[in-house]
Amino acid sequence: MALTSYRNDGLTFEVDDSGGDGEVVVLLHGFPQSRTSWSKLTPHLVQAGYRVLAPDQRGYSPGARPKRRRDYGIDLLVADIVALADNAGARRFHVVGHDWGGGAAWALAERHPERLLSMTSLSTPHPRAMVAAMVRSNQALKSWYMLAFQLPWLPEAAISSKRGGTRVRQALIDAGMAPAEAESRLDMLRGGAARGALGWYRALPFAGKPAGGKIRVPTLYIYSTDDVALGRKAADLTGSYVSGPYTYEVLDGLNHWIPDVAADTIAPMILDHLA
Asked: Where are the alpha helices (DSSP H) in 115-274?
C-alpha cells in the first residue's frame, strides 16, 4: 500500500509515494520548497522502475513543525529519513537531495552508510568542503543569509509583511526561480512553514563540527555554475571528502533550482548512477 504520511518523533509527515515495487529512491527537497519540487524528476524514476518517496520534511509538513530550534538538529533530520524508509519497508535505498535536502543526504550517508545503495546531492557540497570554502573563497559572502536567519522573529515578520514578502519573492526570482513558483513558495511560508523552514538554519549552532569521516557510499554530485548561493570552490573540493565511487557533474549556465529547471538533463545522470 502506498504511503501518504508517516510518523516519527511524535510528528506526522506527508509523503508522495509513486511507482511500484522496485528499489526505493527517497527525494529530499530544500529551502524554501516542498515535495512538489520533484514533480518533474519523479516520472523519469518511476518509468525506470523505481519506487519514489518524496516527503515534506520537518518544518514543512503541517503536522511536523516543532517550535524549538534544537528540534531541527541534523541528527533528527536524518532520523526522519530513516523512519520513512522503515515505514516503506526499505532496508536499503537510494537518496537524492537538493539544497538543504542535499545537506541531509550527506549527513545520512555519513551516519548510516549501511542503509544506502547510493546518494546524490544536487547543488549542496559536502559540509566540510563548504567550511573550507568559507575561508578560501567568497562563500562566506554568498552565505550571508544564514547569519541573518539566526535573528529571532525578524525573518518571519519580513516574510509576513507586504514589503518584506515582495523582497523575498524577488530574491527567489533573482536566484532563478520562476515567478509563479516563487509566489507559491512565499504563500507556503506565510501559511505556517516559515518558522520550521528557518529552523534548519537556526539549529546550525548546535550541529558542532562536521564529522571527520569520508563518504563511502557511491556518490553523485551535480553542481550548476550560475548558483547564487553556492560557489564553485566548495563544489570542486567535495570529492576530497568521498572515498567511495564518486561522480561530479557540472551544469554550465544553470541556476540553483536544478530539479525545476533541469529535470530532463539530470534524469539520465541520476538513473545511470542508480543502476
From this structure: 127-136, 139-142, 144-148, 154-160, 162-174, 179-188, 194-202, 232-237, 258-261, 263-274
